[in-house]
Design a protein that fits this description.
Number of helices: 3
Largest sheet: 8 strands, mixed
Order of helices and strands: EHEEEEEHEEEEEH
Structural class: alpha/beta
Mean pLDDT: 91
Number of strands: 11
Low-confidence stretches: none
Length: about 220
């Protein structure tokens, strides 16, 4: 890839409808060849989004926060302060035209970024997203918690939506949904794991590891 990828960082929370509209506009421009690919780092106010596979029964507390139809794949997801959302708008036609490989690359990107904080992020068969193994008492048992969600949409081979990495969100806010339809596992964050990176630290890790997975060239 010779064409650079633009990085955008929003310092203030971005309303979800505003983000959707901005992505729609940029996807059209990328497809038309009038704008470069984009990775947009941001936070949202507290809200829930419903993917195309969302089960209404998984919306446990529908009045807690606004609920938006996302248009991406997947089920219910929470977004809010303390969570780094990265919207990834890439031209897959120029990157192999393989959606499954693209999702795998998003997972690898998160795994490498988490490794910068000495966190072992892992894939799980049949479950989208990145997970961490929590030790049990005395080193026995333990549980698996989700630390990052992935939800993508592809239109005319241009991607949008992306990833959501829990840095220091209010984890109680996830109680209003069954995150990604998975009832038997929990949710965690970097701070919940005992680490205290700033959002800027996380951004640096994401920006440093992105070219390792997706290729060099940024603006």
């Amino acid at each position: 890839m010779n064409s650079p990828v633009e990085w955008r960082i929003s310092d203030s929370p971005v309303d979800y409808p505003q983000a959707l509209a901005a992505m729609e506009e940029r996807v059209a421009a990328i497809r038309a060849g009038t704008a470069p690919e984009l990775v947009w780092l941001l936070e949202h106010p507290p809200l829930y989004t419903a993917g195309t596979s969302a089960d209404p029964r998984d919306l446990v507390d529908p009045g807690r926060f606004p609920v938006y139809e996302a248009g991406r794949g997947g089920q219910y997801t929470y977004h809010g302060p303390g969570q780094r959302v990265a919207y990834v708008l890439l031209d897959l036609k120029r990157r192999g035209a393989d959606v499954r490989a693209y999702v795998c690359n998003l997972e690898e990107w998160l795994i490498r970024a988490l490794a910068r904080f000495v966190v072992k992020g892992e894939r799980r068969s049949g479950r989208v997203g990145i997970w961490v193994q929590r030790p049990g008492q005395g080193g026995m048992g333990g549980r698996e918690d989700k630390i990052a969600a992935i939800g993508v949409r592809v239109r005319h081979w241009v991607t949008f939506h992306g990833i959501a990495l829990n840095v220091d969100p209010d984890l109680s806010h996830f109680a209003g949904i069954v995150p990604c339809g998975i009832r038997e596992h929990g949710v965690t964050s970097l701070w919940d794991l005992g680490l205290t990176p700033t959002m800027e630290d996380v951004d640096c890790a994401l920006m440093a590891t992105f070219p390792e997975v997706f290729g060099k060239g940024t603006i």
